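Subject: Major facilitator superfamily (MFS) profile domain-containing protein

B.,
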Amino acid sequence: MDPATLENALEKKCRNHAWLAWILLLTCSPLIFVASHLSSYVFLGGNPSFFCYIPELVETNWTKEQIREISSPGLEKQSCVHYARNYSLLKELDFEEALSYCNKRPKPHVVKCKNYIYEEEVFHETIISEWDLVCDDLPLRSTAQGTVAFGKLFGAVVFGMISDRYGRKRIFIFSCTLLTVVGPSAAFVHSYAMFIILRLLIGVANSGIFETGYTLVMEVHKNKLYFWDTLFLFTSMTAIPNQFLL
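Prediction pasted inline below.
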């Protein structure tokens, strides 16, 4: 089909605003899931209180606060060290006797935690408690969201060039399919490295959906119909403000 014929056909089709609204609905619908993945970090990266896991004290069935009071210096909400006490001896005592025993003796030196106990009153389970992303590994917490931003940057560059060659529709459908696969998969992986890879792909898919979707809406109608461009952009900014923050 020659460009003139295609232009005339498209002009006639664009007179049907119901068709344009349908195109807008199809391109905007995936943005709901894009927004969900971007805002999920608020819950995934929830930072609960924690302290050192002491196997001997856990066996005593003391409360978490009692274990913290015996083992953690300063009763801090997040403690990366614990007292080097004789916990094998303390576990044979009840809590009051153990506390009295500790108060009558000088405080010992502290050592780094090997494992942790997490408070679950606010956050039941997060990537922090799943992979112990605390203390020395704390930077890995923000990596989970930073990887999505890097994936969006990479996807914007790559999918922009590929969509010019193979078409917006194909890349848009591929991006939606990719997000459908990698999004739920990230919830079931047991490896932090695999989780980061999937978060990267989520970012790539996000750019593929947003960039090609917006361009597709612009290209399917005549230049004078700026209403649909504005509506798409407003919908996108309302659904995923983080697109413009990351």
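The longest strand covers residues 50-52.

T.
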